[in-house]
Amino acid sequence: MTMTPEQQAEIDEQRAAPRETLRTVSEGMEKHLYSAIPVLDHGFVRVIDYMGDDAAICQAARVSYGKGTKSVQNDEGLIRYLMRHWHSTPFEMCEVKLHVKLPVFVARQWIRHRTANVNEYSARYSILDREFYIPAREALAAQSSVNNQGRGEGLTDEEAARVLDILKGDAARCYDHYEEMISGDGQAGLARELARMNLPANIYTQWYWKVDLHNLMHFLRLRADAHAQYEIRVYADAICQVVADWVPFAWKAFEDYRMGAVTFSAQMVACLRRMLAGEEVTAENSGMSAREWREFEAALRG
């Protein structure tokens, strides 16, 4: 993980000057303030600020439902009820602001989640650092034969070495040309906003990303999934650590009712009922497509 001296100095200064507050504090989240979780070869995730905790979720729910929640005996039970029945707005009362350093191609996947506030490092104003994501040997794999957007078998040692040489060589060459184009040594130099177009998608960028807990959990449900691309999944895994400490009741409910749960279609439910009634159900008489039947079988096998 690489942080600039200025970033580290800012963190050290903030950590050295704790302040008293009357606002709600999550003890689990406090330990994440002013520290960074390393991700990939040069990336990181760190918490800049946050608002709310498990109690804030319950507070919001009890305001919106009034006396209807009086039968709920504790906050954990209420949170599990809310999660189980898809009552999402109380979870929106918690927010977190993250500082993330990540490769550009990961950022372009990430930004598809359009329910956050984002401010990214400007390559029009500043010069990007010479830092590139170079995959570890074990992360290199061939195209999957069954999934058009996934990986298949790992590369042989010889093929992996060839690919790594290409990645490193292309990244270094592109950055050299980037520096040459914006150079001020005896030449006017190209504008930074134009010179940046020559940089590869594995160069690192940084942003501040602020999101409420409901939309963050939606992000994590998709990006911490085993089917997500490895490079974004490791960022999601790092954020999962943070959320588990920040709102432990909400996180446990999220694990049980979202991450560890499966969704069945109406056809799948009908087939399951037929199976429970003792009927032999096959792909041919299920009424499902071949792909949906495979997914159904996979869900039943766990």
TrEMBL record:
Q: Which UniProt keywords apply?
A: FAD, Flavoprotein, Methyltransferase, NADP, Nucleotide biosynthesis, Transferase
Can the keyword Flavoprotein be found in this entry's annotation? yes
According to its UniProt record, the EC number is 2.1.1.148
Which PROSITE patterns does the annotation name? Answer: THYX
Known cofactor(s): FAD
Q: Which reaction does it catalyse?
A: dUMP + (6R)-5,10-methylene-5,6,7,8-tetrahydrofolate + NADPH + H(+) = dTMP + (6S)-5,6,7,8-tetrahydrofolate + NADP(+)
This protein's pathway: Pyrimidine metabolism; dTTP biosynthesis
Keyword Transferase found: yes
Positions with a binding annotation for dUMP: Q109, W110, I111, R112, E120, Y121, S122, A123, R124, R196, R223
User: Which residues catalyse the reaction?
Assistant: R223
Question: What is the protein's given name?
Answer: Flavin-dependent thymidylate synthase
Q: Which organism does this record belong to?
A: Aquicoccus porphyridii
Please name the gene that encodes this protein: thyX
